[in-house]
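User: For a reading group we're discussing how well predicted structures match intuition. Take Adenosylmethionine-8-amino-7-oxononanoate aminotransferase. Before you show the prediction, I'll give you the sequence so everyone sees exactly what went in.
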Amino acid sequence: MLIENDYEFDRKHIWHPYSSMKEPLLCYQVVKAKGCKLELYDGKQLIDGMSSWLAAIHGYNHPRLNYAIKKQIKKMSHIMFGGITHPSAISLCRKLIEITPLSLDCVFLSDSGSVSIEVSIKMALQYWLGRSENRQKFLAIKYSYHGDTFAAMSICDPQNSMHNLWQGYLNNNYFAEAPTCGFYDNWDINDFNDFAYIMEQNYKEIAAVIIEPILQGAGGMRIYHPKYLKLVREYCDKYGIILIVDEIATGFGRTGKLFAFEHAKIEPDILCLGKALTGGTMTLAATITTHEIAHTISNSKANCFMHGPTFMGNPIACAVALENINILQNNKWIKQVNNIEKKLSKYLLPLKKLRQISDVRILGAIGVVETYKLINIEAIQKFFVEQGVWIRPFGKLIYLVPPYIIKQHELKKLTQSISLAIENPLNFIN
Ligand SMILES: Cc1ncc(COP(=O)(O)O)c(C=O)c1O
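Assistant: Thanks. Here is the predicted 3D structure of Adenosylmethionine-8-amino-7-oxononanoate aminotransferase, as structure tokens, for the group to look at:
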């Protein structure tokens, strides 16, 4: 079969993320990926600026990750987790408990980021049932994104996630104004007024606060002041409310700390991990909580935590996640992420002066260029591919979250391509 026919088949029969079957945007066929390079079917090489949505932190086809997968496959690819345990899950959970704050010591493994959010929501609800209190509301932040499943959508920004579309299905939760102070701005206490007010007025109903630490990702790539997060923790303590920290996008070094909540020197009560957990090789997520929450859940009428997916604790995913963390523990990532931050600052910050650009934000291995005009995704994507780079903007945001192993000249090429793209009016919608 001609490879072109595959495109036609794909367009007609396969949904891609947030895509239309009627007028699908062009998709590029990648046949191989290694290090920081993606190879298209025609042999064209693209430098990767996305890490497959913040997952492939060590780059693609990593020999140690590949070996961990192969070694596990030889033993067993999967085994049910009900009534059975296995060494890869035990070693991974030991490791997760070791690298996260002392208070977090009970791990629930699941399939994806969204599911780990569902699990965290359920944990919070069951915790209050265990305390014979019926609390069912969550307090989230505007511009937040926590996933695409229904409970997760109910805590996503009401505008971005089109809550109206799901009216009747989504629970009504509280949304505080998002922080406006950037990471490096002077802190303004007024930023926290709305959160404080909602908490004071409604704390008796609130089961948990949920927040993306430091970076609000898919809701707008907003990098906010650590003081906001610190105050969120203080208010949760003041009113005895659970704090769920969603580190799915930020975990494993992306912001320059192993976990972004470390910028605010706080600890979560429930922590959600995903994406980079397996170095971008397999789908796996973890929801980690305290002994107290875990044990209170078991006091509830159900006597147990009511969740148990078929592929829970998949051995291949656990084995590769463990190796991913082992690689991180040689601590090379710290220097790599610092270097990326310096280069992104050097190449992207000057774009702030351009009339097309409303803001540039940098933290760790994250570089965000916000434009005034809406981006024509298909046109800009084509432009980037012609330049030999893989960058996937959305809305008014062109952002880079490259693998930590990216070389200086590759990073330069990515940033130069962004500068060129901005100059081309065809890449924007008037
Ligand atoms: C902060 C955050 N939470 C949750 C999710 C959902 O994860 P998944 O796409 O693995 O379901 C994402 C995905 O982008 C995310 O960025």
